[in-house]
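In line with agreed milestones, the collection of sequences with tokenised folds has grown. One record among many is set out beneath this paragraph:
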Amino acid sequence: MYISANDWLSRPPAAPPGPAALAVPGGTLANFYGRLLAADTTGELNKEAGLFLDAQIAGCAGLPCELPASPQELESWMFAGAQRATAAYSHYLEERQAGAPRRFFGNRAHALYFLRAVAPTKLVDGAWLYGLLKHWRNPRFADLLRTYVEELGDGAADKNHVVIYRALMARYGLESLDSLDDGLYTQGVIQLALASSAEEYLPEVIGFNLGYEQLPLHLLITAYELNELGLDPYYFTLHVTVDNPDTGHAKRAVQAVLDNLPRLGHAEDFWRRVRQGFQLSNAGIGSTDVIAGFDIEREVVRIFSHKSAAGHGAHSDYCRVAGRNINDWLARKEDIPEFLGALQKAGWIKRGAPVEESRFWGLLQGPRAEMFGVFSPYELQLIHDWIRGEASQDGGAYTEVLSEAATVRRPSFRVAARLAANRGESAFDAAATDDLLDVDLQALAQQLATLDEIGQARLLLQAMAPSQHWTPAGLQATRLFMQRMAGL
């Protein structure tokens, strides 16, 4: 199967941005994200995805593009960009060794906030290439398909990018994405929309891949500071290595542009649209924007406001703060900032002091914690760092009791993982799928045995969709697909 030039040439240029063009199908980005993810096969939401992509392309039209004028200059551009990133990182390391504070994360809660905020993008990592899987016999797509399969970890759970990120979220209690800013779904929706419309947006898919697979400075710093804070950096260090400009995804992304550049006409239009796709890779709220947007006061208010709906009416009326009982305080979300202030005035919360000195913290953690289980691990870390104030810059975890002899620099994640390995513990439990009790895994085996070659291929592709490839059935399908690609 081949994608014809007519498939992408027949699409008219994106309309100028306007209220109708920028409307999100389904009302919110989060809703559209869920619908695209649930589709499982490309083309089901093709029209809506196309309208959304056109609006995003039009919105990026006036922005500067850092790509060179000619695709023949891409390799030099790629190496120059990688050298700038590594040189800037070396300068960052020199600053840190000279005593400069962390550049990105003020404390552990800040880093966890970041990991949660970028989850909608990370949980569909590689999705923009999914729509090309059914064209796996086209040799011009070899580098793109190799990249997608590697995003899926070649079918290995401990290398599948989404499996790794889901494990990271579970480890630190970040699974709930309630009340997440809708704009944080922009990149994920773009990736899923490209997956749904690969034939019509082939140049944009290739351009997006080109932009997304380059090595950015923020990735290097993020991995370093997560490790320093004792948080697992593996997802990010994996991308540092896999996106390298020599043999990694960055080099393959450049080669994919050159391999797919038309030889029989329309090359200029193709390159123009590749540049459009490249711009899409920078659309929405970026990683550094997320980091800069952290406001611990606002985040604490958000969490307490969210909890107020469940907490209202669940408290006895004997405890009163500033003349009002707790149920009364929790009746209106608008009162939460004042409630937190009242708790501080009453001495229940002592900001800038060790958490053990706050009576409220004793309700959350400790031998008589009456509110144990009310807050998630992330929320506890946030409250812990909010109470401690500047002292939280030491990166202390909410479960730790820091002694007076504790140093500012805590053991890094790598050191902790090495010590755990010495004790026979695993930092990442990547169980094989062969012995798992999974209904979809069983169904995959049963259906493959009854289908012809075409039907088998369709089933494997469905199981490798962004919503499924991280499951036991998806991992098995990826391994079988790789065998098919190799002609085994």
